[in-house]
Design brief:
The complex is a heterodimer of chains A (322) and B (269). Chain A has 322 residues and is α/β, with parallel strands linked by helices. Chain A contains 12 helices and 12 strands. Chain B is built from 8 helices and 5 strands; from the N terminus they run ααβααβαβαβαβα. Classes of the chains: A alpha/beta (322), B alpha/beta (269).
Chain lengths: 322, 269
């Protein structure tokens, strides 16, 4: 693990995605990219210039895009279907259900600019419902990497995994947190910091924020466990149960609605396997106001300082659960 | 197989379909009867397929986008040797592989899961595009209902098939003029279809979709653009009292009606 306080360099995880896609694409001619007029926003320009015929652009037609992806897989190809997460999941959810997950099509869905990456463009372009929509579907791993290293590792894994995958990427810069050479294991959380007072769990663009929150807590003599949990489905039940039993309180934070996302997925197991006080931070069930993703995350109580405060409040409930 | 033999097979499939609907107490018999002649021509004459190698990479693809007539596909697949014929009696029973809409992971010969309408054509476009990208020689066929064409996703796919130059794709619209609740005309009348498909850059052939001598040449037609067959069919075709009656979209015959229908279909076997 790196010291995030002294590693300020931020990375756009789309760069890691396309770097791996192009490397794998050179090895495997079956890899094709499918997009909805999103060559630029998905950063597929390099792929397109290398293999123009392997870039299948269906135009602004997401339902067709996902169906075409399923058909390409049926024809023996390995499609990465890329589009803004809000449209990819919202517009074509039924295609994701029937054509991809239920049909078990070997298609990799890549939601770009997820969460509130398009903050100022408003709630139509926010994708803060996609965990809820996708994680309820059987047979569809849902993965939100926390940095460029995990993004690269997850793309590598997805290409080799036989079956549907939803990769949820952002465009908001994040520091590298995981060690170089990290190998992605689906359904396995990464321990970024150990402690016994509370467990902080996040993924995607929020992991580095909980790590900073843990540093603030440490400055106050509170040792928090920090887990990066990229895989929202299947959830790492073992890590969740251990967090409950060993630290007695769980705080989650995500660039998603508080309803139906990472926190909810964790709570489903906490309630039955290790009931402890829990707090879910995220977008509080509203259409977000105007602002950048960073501004909105702060606004919704996910600045490192606010996360630390929420953790202190939650820890107090351990001794007086009422 | 020649048209006369295909007619005989189609009547056998109709009879088995009717029996299965009667026994299961459910099904979509009207749209099954309208589609069976085309399914028969595909599976017993046109498609290059190997029932013992259902995933053979060079197989022609057929997608039943109007997945609610799954039973007609199951009976056809069984008769063609993809699944055991006696399994048809499990249709809709608990834990049967044969539910009301086809499942490609359970039923050999099914290419993709359909049921919600407007899904099969985009997937078929992907299949045809894959053949173009890999140089595969297989051809892709997809059947939709005429009411199903009201789903906007079909028109997204129609546009991209033309854009991609998919001369290896055939869309068959089962134009039986009725949807679940009423006639197409009284609901959202997309007819006439040919002018619309032609405007998108497709070749169009209009046929009587219940006449083998018209079905076979249309399915075997090759050109340099995506091909749409507008198949004028009769809902409930082959059973006089069902024909062109909207009620028979998913009605189940009573014992007396069943006897009459069996007699009508058996006469010509």
């Amino acid at each position: 693990m790196k010291d995030v306080m002294t590693s300020p360099k931020l990375h756009d995880c789309r760069d890691a995605f396309v770097a791996v896609l192009e490397r794998l694409g050179a090895e495997d001619p079956k890899i094709v990219a499918v997009c909805n007029d999103s060559v630029g926003s998905s950063k597929l320009g390099g792929f397109k210039s290398k293999w123009p015929e392997r870039l299948v652009n269906v135009g602004i037609a997401e339902q067709n895009m996902v169906g075409v992806g399923a058909g390409l897989a049926n024809g023996g190809l390995l499609p990465f279907v890329c589009g803004a997460a809000c449209f990819l999941t919202g517009r074509s959810l039924e295609q994701i259900k029937a054509d991809i997950a239920y049909s078990n099509a070997n298609v990799k869905l890549v939601g770009i600019s997820s969460g509130m990456a398009y903050g100022e463009l408003g709630p139509t372009h926010h994708s803060i419902e996609d965990f809820a929509w996708t994680r309820v579907l059987p047979n569809l791993p849902v993965v939100a990497p926390c940095d460029s290293i995990e993004t690269a590792a997850a793309v590598e894994w997805a290409a080799r995994y036989e079956g549907p995958v939803f990769l949820r990427l952002s465009r908001v810069g994040v520091p590298d947190l995981l060690p170089a050479g990290h190998i992605f294991e689906p359904g396995k959380a990464n321990l970024l910091r150990d402690g016994d007072a509370i467990t902080l769990i996040a993924n995607g663009t929020v992991t580095h924020r909980i790590l900073k929150a843990a540093e603030i807590l440490a400055g106050r003599g509170i040792e928090a466990r920090v887990l990066n949990m990229a895989t929202v489905r299947p959830i790492d039940v073992e890590a969740v149960v251990a967090a409950g039993r060993e630290t007695g309180a769980i705080l989650t934070a995500e660039e998603h609605s508080v309803f139906g996302g990472l926190g909810s997925a964790i709570a489903e197991f906490v309630v039955s396997e290790a009931p402890v006080p829990m707090k879910i931070l995220g977008v509080p069930g509203i259409f977000a106001p105007t602002g950048s993703a960073e501004f909105l995350l702060d606004e919704f109580g996910m600045s490192p300082a606010a996360i630390a405060e929420a953790a202190v409040t939650l820890i107090a409930r351990k001794s007086s659960p009422a | 197989m020649q048209p006369n033999d295909l007619d005989r097979v189609a009547r056998q499939i109709r009879l088995r379909d009717l029996q299965a609907v009667f026994e299961a107490g459910a099904g979509h018999i009207g749209g099954e009867m309208s589609a069976i002649d085309i399914l028969t021509a595909l599976y017993f004459r046109v498609l290059r397929i190997w029932p013992d190698q259902p995933k053979h990479p060079d197989r022609d693809r057929f997608v039943l986008s109007k997945g609610h007539v799954a039973l007609a596909l199951y009976v056809t697949l069984a008769k063609r040797g993809f699944i055991p014929e006696d399994e048809i009696s499990t249709f809709l029973k608990p834990h049967s592989r044969l539910n009301g809409h086809p499942n490609c992971n359970k039923v050999s010969g099914v290419e993709t899961n359909t049921g919600p309408l407007g899904h099969g054509l985009p997937v078929a476009v992907g299949m045809a595009k894959a053949a173009k990208l890999t140089g595969a020689a297989y051809r892709t066929y997809v059947m939709t209902g005429d009411g199903e064409m009201q789903e906007g996703s079909n028109w997204e796919a129609i546009a991209s098939a033309a854009q991609f130059g998919l001369d290896n794709l055939t869309l068959i619209i089962d134009h039986n003029r009725f949807q679940q609740g009423a006639s197409l005309k009284d609901t959202n009348n997309l007819a006439p279809f040919p002018v619309k498909l032609e405007a998108f850059g497709w070749d169009v052939t209009e046929i009587n979709g219940n006449v083998m001598n018209e079905i076979v040449p249309a399915l075997e037609k090759r050109g340099d653009r995506p091909h749409c067959i507008v198949a004028h069919t009769n809902k409930g075709h082959g059973i006089s009292f069902m024909q062109d009656k909207v009620d028979w979209h998913h009605k189940v015959p009573n014992a007396e009606q069943y006897k009459i229908a069996v007699a009508e279909l058996s006469e010509t076997l």
